[in-house]
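Listing S7. Sequence submitted for prediction.
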Amino acid sequence: LTHIYLDEFTVLKETAPFKFTVLCKPYRGNQFEYQISLMFEYTKQYPFTPLKYELEPIAGITRDNLNNITKKIDDIINNSHQKPVVFDIVEETRNWIHEYLVEGKAFEEE
């Protein structure tokens, strides 16, 4: 993950349980307009037990945005079948920011 996210990746705790953050922002455009920090903490049995996560809005993220992103993350975790999910969660969050906030698509309930 450190090689994928470079400056967006920060280790918070290097011993078990491992804890780190990834800053999610749009792919293009003003990368400072919309940002959210995802904090992850591995459980002792990860990926066989779900990891813990928290969302922290940094810029341009509303409570409704957080609720929508949380639903997406929970879906990924619930459908992971005990596989690692951090990359999928980060990419889904980045995609959501880009599609719904940068490009302005209306959020549709699934």
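Caption to Listing S7: primary sequence and predicted structure tokens for the chain studied. The longest strand covers residues 52-59. The two ends are 30 Å apart (CA to CA).
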